[in-house]
């Protein structure tokens, strides 16, 4: 991927005779929602735009709704059905609803003059278990009221398959004043959580992990990692062979002990076809790309998966309900411990990264993958005047780069999210609508 558009959604809602505006944003990321190699990036953009159009039509024509969650639940089945008729899977359908739900949440938070955290603790959107029958009888209200609003999140830095590990390995220096290699990133940001991409070529994976492990062992101090298989493994046996190779390599023992979980190693169309208990006993497994709808986590858990990713592009309600499942399951005597992870599909600084960070903080994760600021050059093409507003409004979250642009501020491995606890869903600074192209242009 060399370039991709970002979509901004603005909704106007009416509550008790008053109108309120809310907004959301998300990158139209190609080759994740649908990895079919026969489709171009433009095809992927069109799929996501279509899902958003379908969702908007359904929400607008649904009639009056008692609350925001009821509207979401009312339209879900028709949205998935319509997208399926176009050949689009559940992740694409989820994208359409996710953007609208976040914008509507933003609007009702503003209307009530509440932060996202306070609105969710009081269940302002009216969440219930109608879409999660496995949670019937549990105390969802109690779960919501116990959530907190932390002031910081640890950053989990993504180590891509072709990212330079050492500065001496850089062949195309970017010269933008930012760290490019992993060793420079550790030195600059102080990150201690890492998401390492691994492939199914075992020999190549081990060689690369050895270079990374040597760096982390000598430079990072305390560290923890996740391994992301990116659907590159055919089955659990192939994943097991990677585990065998890692466990047999003496230089990887500290990294292996520091490995928290393995994210989606098996391709989405096969990942939930067979049990993974044998490899899950060695390291916890988390679902990401196979999470096509709200009913997936119980199915995956029965097969041996214990983790589920939170991504705002999949839906804010899905993340919160899955977190409620984790709390419920973990309260049961003798149950294998489940967990949530916070992953990033290139959320961009501004509206997108702030809403995703607020969501991650609300569900209680300690660290969140943050790669959009790194791989997409900060605010990208956002007008400098808009970047300056974000610098002013969120002084702890952003900093000024050498060219005067705004950058996500990472200090001591953390991002400061104190300013997100204000009226609205993680953001009170509107985009510069006049500088955006219309959706269909």
What is the topological layout?
Blueprint: E1 6-15, E2 18-27, H1 41-60, H2 68-85, H3 90-112, H4 116-121, H5 140-145, E3 152-159, H6 182-189, E4 193-197, H7 202-220, E5 224-228, H8 236-248, H9 253-257, E6 259-263, H10 277-280, E7 285-287, H11 296-303, E8 307-310, H12 316-330, E9 339-342, H13 351-363, E10 367-369, H14 372-375, H15 384-393, E11 398-400, E12 406-408, E13 414-416
Parallel strand pairs: 3-4, 3-10, 4-5, 5-6, 6-7, 7-8, 8-9
Antiparallel strand pairs: 1-2, 3-13, 11-12
Helix pairs in contact: 1-2, 1-3, 2-3, 6-7, 7-8
Characterization of the model:
The model has no long low-confidence stretch (mean pLDDT 95). The longest helix has 23 residues, at 90-112. This protein has helices at residues 41-60, 68-85, 90-112, 116-121, 140-145, 182-189, 202-220, 236-248, 253-257, 277-280, 296-303, 316-330, 351-363, 372-375, 384-393; strands at residues 6-15, 18-27, 152-159, 193-197, 224-228, 259-263, 285-287, 307-310, 339-342, 367-369, 398-400, 406-408, 414-416. Strands 3, 4, 5, 6, 7, 8, 9, 10 and 13 form a nine-stranded mixed β-sheet that branches. It has a two-stranded antiparallel sheet with strand order 1-2. A two-stranded antiparallel ribbon has the order 11-12. Helices cover 39% and strands 15% of the residues. With 441 residues, it is α/β, with parallel strands linked by helices.
């Amino acid at each position: 991927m060399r370039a991709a558009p970002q979509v901004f959604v603005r909704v106007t809602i009416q509550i008790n005779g008053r109108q309120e505006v809310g907004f959301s944003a998300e990158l139209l990321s190609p080759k994740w929602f649908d990895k079919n190699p026969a489709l171009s990036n433009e095809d992927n953009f069109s799929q996501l735009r279509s899902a958003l159009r379908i969702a908007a039509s359904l929400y607008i024509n649904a009639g009056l709704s008692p609350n925001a969650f009821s509207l979401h639940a009312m339209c879900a089945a028709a949205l998935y059905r319509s997208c399926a008729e176009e050949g689009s899977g559940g992740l694409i359908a989820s994208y359409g609803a996710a953007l609208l739900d976040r914008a509507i949440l933003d609007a009702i938070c503003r209307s009530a003059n509440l932060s996202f955290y306070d609105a969710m603790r009081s269940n302002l959107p009216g969440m219930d278990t109608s879409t999660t029958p496995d949670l019937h009888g549990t105390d969802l209200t109690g779960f919501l009221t116990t959530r907190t609003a932390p002031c910081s999140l640890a950053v989990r830095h993504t180590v891509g398959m072709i990212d330079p590990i050492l500065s001496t390995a850089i062949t195309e220096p970017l010269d933008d004043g930012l760290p490019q290699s992993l060793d420079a990133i550790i030195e600059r940001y102080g990150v201690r959580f890492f998401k390492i991409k691994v492939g199914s070529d075992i020999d190549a994976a081990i060689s690369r992990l050895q270079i990374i492990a040597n760096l982390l062992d000598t430079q990072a101090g305390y560290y923890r990692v996740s391994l992301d298989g990116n659907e590159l493994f055919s089955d659990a046996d192939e994943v097991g062979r990677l585990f065998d190779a890692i466990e047999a390599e003496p230089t990887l023992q500290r990294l292996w002990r520091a490995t928290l979980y393995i994210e989606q190693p098996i391709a989405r169309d096969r990942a939930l076809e067979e049990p993974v208990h044998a490899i899950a006993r060695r390291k916890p497994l988390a679902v990401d790309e196979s999470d096509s709808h709200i009913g997936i986590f119980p199915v995956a858990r029965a097969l041996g998966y214990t983790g589920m990713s939170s991504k705002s592009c999949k839906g804010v309600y899905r993340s919160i309900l899955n977190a409620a499942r984790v709390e419920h399951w973990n309260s049961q005597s003798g149950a294998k411990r489940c967990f949530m992870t916070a992953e990033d599909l290139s959320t961009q600084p501004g509206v997108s990264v702030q809403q995703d960070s607020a969501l991650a903080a609300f569900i209680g994760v300690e660290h969140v993958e943050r790669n959009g600021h790194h791989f997409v050059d900060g605010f990208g093409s956002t007008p400098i005047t808009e970047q300056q507003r974000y610098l002013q409004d969120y002084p702890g979250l952003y900093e000024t780069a050498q060219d005067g642009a705004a950058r996500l501020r990472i200090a001591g491995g953390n991002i400061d999210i104190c300013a997100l606890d204000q009226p609205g869903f993680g953001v009170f600074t509107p985009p510069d609508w006049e500088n955006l192209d219309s959706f269909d242009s």
